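Researcher: Please translate sequence to structure tokens.
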Amino acid sequence: MSADTHTVTGQHLSWTVADTIVEVTLHRAPANEIGLETLAELEQLVAFINDGAGGARALIWTSSVKAGFCAGADLRALYHEWVAHEASGRSEAEAIGRVRSFLDRIHAVMNALDMAPLTTIAATHGVVFGGGFELALTADVIVADKSTRFAFPELRLGLIPGWGGIPRLSRDVGNAVVRDILLTGRSVGARRAHAVGLVSQLVGRGQALDCARQVAAQATRFDPRTSRVAKRFTKHLPLARLEEEKDIFCELVASPVVREALARFVNDDGPMPYLPAASAKA
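Model: Translation complete:
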């Protein structure tokens, strides 16, 4: 990197600006689960981008943890917060209000990242599940190594993706693919994701970041205003659908099915804690 670099190091993510490229690294072990602390750091990143991103013109997302890019929301924190809220005797409406407040914050972050005035590239490997998949979908380009697997397992918890996943996925691939991913909860490998147009470039294991850097370098060669206009023309923000998604999520989250599924997830040390007991035996 050049001598003129700028680095911000957080507990869960860090970023460095060099040669007009921001490189954001997720580094919360074991799998970059996103909770309130990570959200606060993402909000700091958005503020940095809105303030000019140190002159950068492209942004790369990557992960330094072995498990993968991001496993999604911190479900254990969500469960423990809900239990603590119930124990306090406060109303269900208050609990849902807190969920809605979190959704408003995470949507604001995702929307800002989605429409950031830079070319954004996600370099993925391993698990890209739930909220991690939703984060990757904010990128303009996804570069995936062959170990990458994408999934929306939320239906196994009695929920739908709540951070903008379905509207953004519907923007990029056909609705039949969206239904397959959502309604089965199965993971999709990098090769199939590339075949259906979700992944722009498929590379060997461990090569995604190098490829993303090449994409970013190419993207910064053009007039910045032209690049911004081209991005706005080819990438719309489905605001009405995003708001509808939040409403549906808040409607579902109060269900006993969700609390039972979260409890099972928190207390299960098995390889597939999302699965309902009957399905797990199948």
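Researcher: Any highlights?
Model: The two ends are 51 Å apart (CA to CA).
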